[in-house]
Write a structure and sequence with these properties.
Layout (H helix, E strand, L loop, with lengths): L7 E2 L5 E8 L2 E14 L5 E11 L6 E4 L1 H7 L5 H18 L4 E3 L2 E4 L2 E2 L2 H13 L1 H8 L2 H15 L8 H5 L14 H10 L2 H14 L7 E9 L21 E9 L5 E8 L4 H15 L6 E4 L6 H9 L3 E5 L6 H13 L15 E10 L2 E10 H28 L5 H6 L4 E5 L7 E5 L1 H9 L3 E6 L6 H9 L2 H8 L1
Parallel strand pairs: 9-12, 12-13
Antiparallel strand pairs: 1-5, 2-3, 3-4, 4-5, 6-7, 7-8, 9-10, 10-11, 13-18, 14-15, 15-18, 16-17
Protein name: Transposase
Organism: Anaerobiospirillum thomasii
Length: about 475
Amino acid sequence: MIYYEITYAVPQSRCYTQSEIRGGRPIKYLYMYTSFFRNEKGQSRNKSVIVGRVSETDPTLFHPNDKYFAITGTAIPQVVLDKKEERKAKKQKRGSKITSISHGVPVVNGDVVKGSSLILKKIFENTGLSDCIKKIFDKKESDYLTATACLIASGDSTMSNIDDFSKTFVFDEPEIGSVSDSTISRLFSLCEQEDIDSFFELWLKKHKDLNEAICYDVTSFSSYAQEIQHAEFGYNRDKEDLPQVNLGMFSSIKSKKPLYYSMYNGSLNDSTQLPYVINDAKRLGISTRNVCTFDRGFFSQKGITFLDNAGLKLIVGVSLSRYKQALEVIEALSNSQAYRLPKYELSEYPGIYGHHIEHTIEDVKGVLHIYHDMNKCYDDNKILSQEVAAEIEKIKEVNDDGMPITQRKAKSLCKFHNCIKDDSNPCGYVFKEDEDKIIKAQKLLGFFALFTANSDLSGADVLSAYRHKDVQEKIFDT
């Protein structure tokens, strides 16, 4: 359990931070070394565990978990213990209203509690979801699917619980008392691609607003199941050694509703699969007249050409590591020292300075927007310091091992260093910090770039549309 009520300063030794993707967004955890040892080859190694989560507002602080207190021997503050007892008492107080439990179903004074299912059903009706389902499936099937969707919306995606949950559900068909997981499994197996396509066509017609921006992003779901068609090993965002299913989804930035999704094999590359997802979405009714945002993971010259040819009014994050032209523009701005003049500050975003130039990628004419964010600059500087320190530590480990390393290994330690072949050194190389490399990295701190084919959008408009794509990540989180 992570204690968000308290914070401690991030230790200066025996620890390191690492960002991990959870639910489509990066979360920075604090790791603490628990042991140091040498493997069978005599190489130094270590073990570490997560001892907390770095504060999102101040990267010099972290919220500890139980392992931090266990490893360091620090006593859990009384304020945390008091809050835990307070939560426990409140939970018991809420639970005291339930007079009994019948087959896992809460009962109050002899009546089955159905409040949550009524609320969820009302939401489904108001959004038009129920109407779409009823136009494709018969009454009983619609009831089954709606009950299953309500179970998932309540935060429980375990189908084995559908029987108990359905006893609290208000079905349109009175004769339905409950639903078993085997019934739902059979219904799912009978759903054809034609049914799924029909649903999306109806759903997209209900949510067709040409004046709002949409966004596209990808997530994945790991699974232990052996019979899922799309489950394959691939790049796992959660660092789990499990097969996964990839899911690409369009969402509305304004209404915060998902519009269309496509599931595909976990081994497939997201950028490679994107054209197929776009074509399917267009076939089922996604409008190409909407402004559509993509993160920099989808940035490539070939990809931008495809998206433009597809008719999308694209806004895409620029990968500076893969697009030298943008990097050169940023370096020129940084060297001029004029990028932070007051006239360039965006009034809608204090502390962010915007510049733009007409730019063509392949045959796609558009605008390259360059931004400098003061808050991002501070965060980037902390990350840079950590990366330099981490490289120094790795070089120290190599020298301590006293074993020859390959040229490839040596080059991997030269992001901020230079290496010279030296047979007198046990590892075969001598490393020296390269200040020019560090200074070059410092000049890029706080900068990021966006490309759009919409020349009529201002820098603030482009940034606003791109920043609001985090609605997609919030949908994935839920």
